[in-house]
From TrEMBL:
EC numbers, comma separated: 3.1.3.5
Annotated organism of origin: Roseateles chitinivorans
Gene: surE
Family designation: Belongs to the SurE nucleotidase family.
The name this protein goes by in its record: 5'-nucleotidase SurE
GO MF term (any one): nucleotide binding
Length: 251
């Protein structure tokens, strides 16, 4: 079993070390992660400049790029093999609902999935790494279960784990993505040099958090496991658009 581990909080983050520990004895582990925090970078690839790959004293490799860059490099030449599993995280904060589209953590796993590798993104619901070892135990158990279940087909899972000491004893719920309200207002400030500067505001509160959603599961004492796909087509409206544009009289 060969496991590639990435993240978006950077190669020095406690979450990636915890995920590496969680995989001890499950196979060979390779870490390729961003040099710096790349939260919110989604699936971005670095195309406008070359990337550099460095090796830390603990053997982790780190890249001056995005989470997607890390997995992309790994699967297009940096590694001389195709991993059996790509893991990302454990993220410092939730990736639920709309977060999923912005998330560098999910993006690293998505990159593995796009290359046909079963992939899992792990996030803790709250920032601050509280009960990280318990989250790592959840990750270990799920990795063992998916290995036992067979890795014969690619899948993409986003796992959100409550920051609780008993996280490994919590039920696991298969969920759909909820929705957040739009992000809070941008924070505008004036720099010491008099120029306006802007901070992206906090994420919006949960809006669609009903039964079956990731928000509902983690808010009710469970670990949320959301299977993801990358087909963004809105299939339900294809025929409607065809009809609407045909009535416009153009070919
Ligand atoms: N609008 C904001 N969104 C935020 C903020 N902090 C986090 N987030 C969302 O969560 C994910 C975190 O995922 P990561 O894997 O990228 O770390 C991030 O992508 C955003 O969607 C915030 O302060 N404002």
């Amino acid at each position: 079993m060969r496991i590639l581990i990435a993240n978006d909080d950077g190669y020095l983050a406690p979450g990636i070390a915890a995920l590496v520990r969680a995989c001890e004895g499950l196979g060979t582990v390779e870490v390729i992660a961003p040099e710096q925090n790349a939260s919110g970078t989604s699936n971005s690839l670095t195309l406008h400049r070359p990337l550099s790959v460095y090796t830390a004293s603990n053997g982790y490799r780190y890249v001056n790029g995005t989470p997607s860059d890390c997995v992309h490099l790994a699967l297009t030449g940096l590694l001389d093999y195709k991993p059996d599993l790509v893991l990302s995280g454990i993220n410092n904060g939730a990736n639920m609902g709309d977060d999923t589209l912005y998330s560098g953590t999910v993006a690293a796993a998505t990159e593995g999935y796009l290359f046909g590798v079963p992939s899992i993104a792990f996030s803790q619901v709250e920032k601050g790494w509280g009960h990280l070892d318990a989250a790592a135990a959840v990750a270990r158990a799920l990795v063992q279960d998916v290995i036992a279940g067979g890795l014969d087909r690619p899948f993409l899972l986003s796992v959100n784990i409550p920051n609780r000491a008993d996280a490994a004893a919590l039920p696991r719920r298969i969920t759909r993505l909820g929705r957040r309200h739009a992000s809070e207002a941008t924070i505008q400030q004036r720099s010491p040099r008099g120029e306006m500067i802007y901070w992206i505001g906090p994420a919006g509160a949960e809006r669609e958090a009903g039964e079956g959603t990731d928000f509902h599961a983690t808010g009710n004492g469970a670990v949320s496991i959301t299977p993801l796909q990358v087909d963004l087509t809105e299939h339900a409206t294809l025929d409607d658009w065809r009809q609407r544009l045909q009535t416009a009289g153009r070919p």
